[in-house]
Amino acid sequence: MSRKEDLLKLEAKYCSWGDTVHYTSQLDIFNRAEGIYLYDIRGVEYLDLQMWYSAANFGYKNPRLNEALKRQIDRLPQLASKYLHEEKILLAAKLAQRVEKTFGVKGRVHFSVGGASAIEDSLKIVRNHTKKNLAFAFMGGYHGRTLGASAITSSYRYRERFGHFSDRALFIPYPYAFRHSRHKKLEAYGRECVSDFKRLFDTEYHGVANPKTGNCEFGAFYIEPVQGTGGYIVPPRNYFSGLKKVLDRYNVLMVDDEIQMGFYRTGKFLAIEHFNVVPDIIAFGKSLTNGLNPLSGIWAKEGLISPKVFPPGSTHSTFSSNPLGTAAALETMRLIEDDEEYFKREVPKKGAYFVSRLKKLQKKYPVMGDVDGLGLAIRVEMCRKDGFTPNRELTDAMTNIGLSGNLKTGGKRRGLILDVGGYYKNVFTLAPSLYIQEKEIDLAIDLFEEVLQKGIAKTSHGKAASFSSVSMSA
C-alpha cells in the first residue's frame, strides 16, 4: 500500500466529513505549493485556478509575505488580543485611511479571525444601530456557515439540519443576466432589477415597510459586489447605485462582503469600487494575509462603530488581531501599495486576455454556455448542447479529471485545480494568482480544453453520475 493510500485510509476513519473535502470523489494529498502551482505527494504539478478560494491572491509561498511572517514568529508570535501591538494599529490605520481616501468617509476597523466571524461582528453592528434583527440578502449569496451567517446565506441546505432560523434573511434575486436577461441591454436590466426591489416598499402588504411612517422592518442588505459561491456573477454597473438610493430612503444599511473579491481580485482594491456606491459596512478577509494566518475584519462608518456606540467588549475573539495575522496583513498592504500600478494595469489586462482565450474556446464547445469576468474573477458556466441548460454532470466530471493528475498537455504529467460554484453547481469560478503570466494563462487554456474533451467523452458514454437538469426559459 502506498503512502497516499495509507493516509487516505486514516482520513476516511478519523477525519470528520463535515467539511467540503468530500464534495469531490477524486481525493489527493498535497505537500508543496509555489507560485500558481500545487504539488501532490507523488510530485505531480497542478496548475491552480482557484488559489484557495481567492485567499492566496499573491501566489503561494510569496517570499516577501513569508519573510514577514517568519520575522514575526521570531519576535512576537503570540499576544492576547486585549493587548496592543504595533502591527494591529498600523494595519487598522492603513485600511481605514484607504477606505477614507477611496470613498471620502471616516470609519474604524475591527479585526476577527475568519470571514464568517467578520460577518457575525457586522450583524452585531447592524443590530446595535438599527435595533432590527432582519436583513435582506441575495439569492445565491454566501456569507459563511456559522448560525448568524447561515441566516443570510441563501442555501437552505446550510440551515436544514439546525432548526428554525426565525431571523433568516429575505432573499432578493441577484441580477443574473445570462439566466434572466440575455436579450436586454445590461443598463436597462439593472434599472429593472432596482425597480423590482423598490416595489416591495409600495404597500405595507408586501411585508417589508410601512409607507405611512417610512419605517422598514429590515436593518441591512448584505451584498457581494460580484457574487462568489453563486458563480462569479457580475451585475450591471448601475445596479448597486440604484439599490443604495432605495436603501438610504428607508435607513437600511448596505453591508459589502468583500471577503472573496477584495484586494484587487477584480482589478480594484475593493470590488464595490466598480459600482459607484459607498457602503456603510465592509467585511474583508481571505487574501488580506495571502492565506498565511487567519485574519478578517470589518470597516464601518464612524457613526456605527465609534467607542460611544460600540464600546469595549461589544465583540471579542481569542485570536482576533493575532500578531502573526496582522504582520502578514500589514506586509500585504505594503506590497499592494508598492505594486499598485501593476495591479491596476495588469489584473484587468490579464483578465481580459484570459476571457478572450476562453471565448475562443467557447466557439468550439457550445457547452461553455457563458464566459464572463471582472478582472481575474472569471466564470465559465457549463451547459448542455443548447448552451443554456445547466450541466452539473459535465462540471463534476471535469473537476475530478483535473484532480486526477493524469493530464498530458505539454508532454508532462499535470493536474488542474478547478473550483465549482453557481446556482446549479455548473460554474467554474476561476481565481488565479494576480501574478499569473500570459504563458501560464495559455497553459491553463490548454489544460482546460484537455479536461473538457475528456469530460465530454466520459459523460457522453454515460460513465458519470446522472444529473437531473432544471428547465428554464431565457
Can you put this structure into words, describing what you see?
The chain is of the alpha/beta class and about 475 residues long. The protein has two domains: about 5-60 and about 340-460, Aspartate Aminotransferase, domain 1 (Alpha-Beta Complex); about 75-340, Type I PLP-dependent aspartate aminotransferase-like (Major domain) (Aspartate Aminotransferase, domain 2, 3-Layer(aba) Sandwich), CATH 3.40.640. The chain is about 35% helix and about 15% strand. It is built from 14 helices and 17 strands. It has a seven-stranded mixed beta sheet, with helices on both faces. It is globular, with a radius of gyration of 22 Å. Residues about 460-474 have low confidence and may be disordered.
Question: How many domain regions?
Answer: 2
Return the average pLDDT rounded to an integer: 95
Structural class: alpha/beta
- Number of strand elements: 17
CATH top level class name of the largest domain:
Alpha Beta
Helix content: 25-40%
- The Rg value, from CA coordinates, equals 22 Å
Strand order of the largest sheet: 4-12-11-10-9-5-6
